[in-house]
Fold these 3 entries.
Entry 1:
Amino acid sequence: MKIGIQAYVTAYGIDPVTLGKAIEDAGFDSYWAPDHAAVPVAPATPLPLPGGRFPDVYGQMVDPFVSLSVMATATTALRLVTGVCLVPERNPLMLAKLVSSLDLFSGGRVIFGAGTGYVPELTEVFTPHHATPWKLTIESIEAMKLLWTNGRGAYDGDLVRFPEVICDPLPVQRPHPPVVLGARPTPVSARRVAAVADGIYLTVVTPEEVAGARAAITAECERIGRDPAEIEISVSVHDPSPRFQREFGEAGADRLVVMLHNHDGKPLPREEWAGRQMENILAPAPSPEETLRSLERVRELAEL
């Protein structure tokens, strides 16, 4: 079982060079960089979060492509993942260039995690297509894959359109870096993954839900003539101990991803994961030393 780390890089905590080296040296396979370019100060509709607003750290995190680029210079094998990039908030031509450039200079270590976010009024700040974020995201991915594969191309979708353009450099990974959709385990997401992606990133799920997602994705792949073995399932967990590695692995997961922020490194029943993660996110930001201690505790918990 592969195990990755997700953590917030801000101006007030550990730097990406120190964090990246520590994650790689500890034996984790990947770093997942969260993404929020901006957050509303006072959401018109209260969010499904404590206090009805975003935690402070959501507005403090640095751009994921900056943190991943810096981290690439300090590591040699760590997979560099956007976990996940909010595609409707970015122009697909600029995004294609960012991903291919990072893949080039990292030696082919990028995994492009893509999603839409869950706050329509925030998406509206970035795009007039806020009412159809997944349609915009899928068209953007299709357009970017065309550019990554061929180095040039035109795209004429309903929401994404551009004439033939050149997109150089090409990514090292051919025909393109793996694309992972951050989504819920639904029949619709299974169809999307089979059609345009190489994996899915699931959060707040049970092993039973993972097994259902694996079965649904397999069925969709077989329906369109694709090999289901090409699809990788990554699952966000709080406790990466061998018990949960086994349970989620038997359900069809390939990787577990641990949110490091204020993690105490102690085992926890699965039913308490979501609440504990939110408590950790709302707590004061950890110091660099505290983050490194959390990383060591999680490494021990995972028995790496």
Entry 2:
Amino acid sequence: MLFTISIVISAAAALLLHMWLQARAYDLVQDDVELINLPAAFDGATILYVSDTHKRLLATTDFEKWKGKADWVLIGGDIAEEGIPWSIVRHNMNLLSRVAPAFVVYGNHDKKAGTAQLKRILDDSSVQLLQDKAVYLQKGSDQLRLIGLDYRSKQSEELLRNQGHDECTIVLVHDPLEALRLEVHADLVLSGHTHGGQLVLPWLGPVFLNRAYRKVSSGWFSLKRHKQDSRNGKMLVSRGFGTNHLPLRLGCPAEVHLITLRSPAAKSPDH
């Protein structure tokens, strides 16, 4: 009996250690993404995308190596949470802004942590906050539109309607369900919020994730609503870099994304 109990305790301790270690590792996910309306000068441009850092401190050596390799850094929100030292947020934002021009949106935890102090840190770190705001990214004489939507935005439809028909648009929004509710076109949506479920059980999936998010827990998704839908945009839902509530992950590694923008093969001069 005592032997059985000791085996169970040892197995539980080993599992907890594995989950703790997995929460401190991460995958670098590299994707080439074709965008129909991508201007020619942006073919091959790269985005370093990070979301949901929460209280996790970014390692300087892990991110400084992308300086000169990424054209922009996009940050999908939840860069803070209640009760954590602001020094962590300041370090993370300073580090990311040194990689490349950086843009961020607020997530739900950012709102709870306190946006007045957070805005000061972003300004000091030269990270541009896109709070229901659009900016243009430049490559040579070409440009594309980057729109950042505030958490629970009430201006998203208006911002997205105010664009040219063939204008390439990237949307940065924390919550993927907000993106799916949009009735207007976007070429690429980058989101997070779900943490991929954080604890994903074999055969059962992300059982602790709110049911509404399970269909978009993590990965790439089409923005088409039906076969006749003319929209051909794509949405990435990141598993995020930090953790929420428990500092543990299981079957759901943290991730950072290096996204290379590509023109469709049909538009390429070699085809």
Entry 3:
Amino acid sequence: MKYLVTLKPRSKFFFGGDRTFTSQERQNYYAHSTYFPQQTALLGMLRYALLNEYGLLEKEELDKEKLIGSTGFDLNSHAYGIVKNISPVFIVEKQHIWLSAGLDNQDKISLKLSSDKNLKIDGFDPKKELKQQFISSDYTQSIQPLDYFFLDTPQVGNAKERNGKTLQDAFFKHIYKSFKRDPANYESRFAFGLEIETTEKVELTTIKTVFLGAESSFTVELTPSKGIFERIQSINDSLKDKGANEHKIILLSDSYIEDLAVLKNHSSFILTDAPTPFRFNKNKKSDYYKSITRSNQYHLLSRGTVIYPKDIMKVTEILDAAKAFQTIGYNHYQIQTR
């Protein structure tokens, strides 16, 4: 069974990863929200929602295991009870699904093969930031930048004790995110979305609000999915044997690469942004919110990265090798003609 999970923010939101201002390891004076939640947070939200739906929140661990698995994200496992997999998070606008477009969609930047089959890049300035772009999955809308969807919402202040005394190092500035609103009704024009695949029919009737990030709540809705990522995978499979010189690979999600040097050896060129830092709770309880310790930090290739492969089969094998990551929505990609 495949479903679309839609998460509509009820107000501003903050996703921080290792930079969140609620971190127990450190408090940051200046903290800037990321645009998207981590896939591990989405997995945790989904597991919690299922426990709530089935009335198992207060039950023993063995009662929960069949429904949501025995652990949260685990590098050595990709079994989460009835949840087979989840897709990368994307943006929903009414009937449109917005996915990451390649970082090669920049003003004045041109990437093409020369007559001698070498890759030629024109107009690239390494001092200028590459802008993330998004494209509708049905290709009926123009490519749009992040500021088409998002607004920054700053908040400044200082933390105080109950008696009014200012705490040491308590002054802060936090930059929240919010979606742009529809001027007609002042509701959010956009929502986050993800596809999930389950082994059995699922409904969410008892829970309408979920929490992600710091002080961020979302209205959740579960509807049948149109199989967006299944179609993308079908196209990928049909293009893999057509030859690397005619195609490029767009990362639709942040992606873990075990050995970046091997990927570079099989690629003519990789256009990417700063890597995305990634850590996860090494939680041995099925209750996702009971963290124990944190993993080492990984560095993921950012969504929108464009890979021009020398050997398209080798490159896709490298991306597909990280099964644990791929199961929860990382390491997803789309093969396109150059």
